[in-house]
Amino acid sequence: MKSTELYAALEREFIKPHLSEYVWEANVTTITDLLSENFKKRYMGVLADFADDVTHVYTAVFPSVPVLKMLLDQGVHDALLFVHHPAVWDICGNSDSDAFVAIDHDLLLQCKKQRIAVYCLHVPLDNYGPYSTSVTFAQALGIKPIKPFAHYFGAYAGVFGSSDCTTLEQLQQRFMQAVGHEVRLYAYGDNVLSETVAVVAGGGLMLEVVQEIVAAGCNTLVTGLTLCNTFTQSAHDYARQNGLNILGGTHYSTEQFACVALCDYFKKLGLPAQFVADEPQLQDL
Fold first, then answer.
1. CB atoms < 10 A from the CB of 272, how many?
2. Which of 125, 160, 182 is a domain's end point?
3. Half-sphere exposure of 239 (CA within 13 A, CB side)
4. Does residue 277 lie within any of the structural domains?
């Protein structure tokens, strides 16, 4: 498939006029020479336009060194790397306010030589829909989505859903099975789950989000990033004061399900697609 045809299909499917994007300028300064003009203007869509033809698609949560090296070491060419984020999550040793670091310039340059284009959808993939981060995450937990919430850059990044789990322990066990590692429980409320559970993949632990959840009468939030720092302190305090339980399973692990699901989307377009696994940072918890 011509890359322009693929970009156009993704644009129609995901990039809606009402959506805007987080300004990633500070996270891409070291790779500006390799960025497409499209990405410089709106921080979504084609990040690096390195391929005229796409014969295979790879999906990943972050354009990390292990992800890029896997493609390069295997000699991948004439391909598209679809990522949820245009920068790499590295919470270890970084500030509370911004744990993202830029894509490795040399590896991205090698992608250019091997004709591997990079395409990024952050807010558009968080937006409520069949491939969204929170909907696919909820489904992985056996939670049936009911309605969206958590307005974010024009998108609805969260979902209220119903679960057949009745207690925190049952939901925590289900969570661990889905992500394949330990998860963190902040048991601030009742052990018996309310009628609905709130699900926000990634960094859903924000004060305005937990306020909306409490106002809806929900007593449990399942999300990714839950460590208590200057960014999340006010959300933790409000949750504790209002009996809202918090379950966390890392930024990467809770957003991976959308990138896995997208492989089916690309296959429907006639393109072989493969999810490239990475490692969660348990320090997120």
1. 12
2. 125
3. 31
4. no
Residue 193 lies in a domain: yes
Cross-strand partners of 100: 89
Q: How far apart are CA 206 and CA 19, in angstroms?
A: 20
What is the signed CA dihedral for 100, 105, 108, 113, rounded to 10 degrees? 180
Give the Cα separation of 174 and 222 in Å (integer).
Answer: 11
- Residues in CB range of 49: below 8 A, 6 or more apart: 3, 36, 38, 117
Contact of 62 with 87, CB cutoff 8 Å: yes
Domain range spanning residue 187?
A: 127-251
In sequence order, which residues have a C-beta less than 8 Å from that of residue 165 and are 6 or more positions away? 142, 171, 174, 193
CA gap 276, 136 in Å, rounded: 17
CATH code of residue 40: 3.40.1390
Alpha-carbon span 55 to 75, nearest angstrom: 13
pTM of the predicted protein model: 0.97
- Structure token pair of residue 260: 């896995």
Cα 165 from Cα 195, distance rounded (Å): 10
**For 227-273, how does the pLDDT look when each residue is reduced to its tens digit (9 = 90+)?**
999 889 999 999 999 999 999 999 999 999 999 999 999 999 999 99
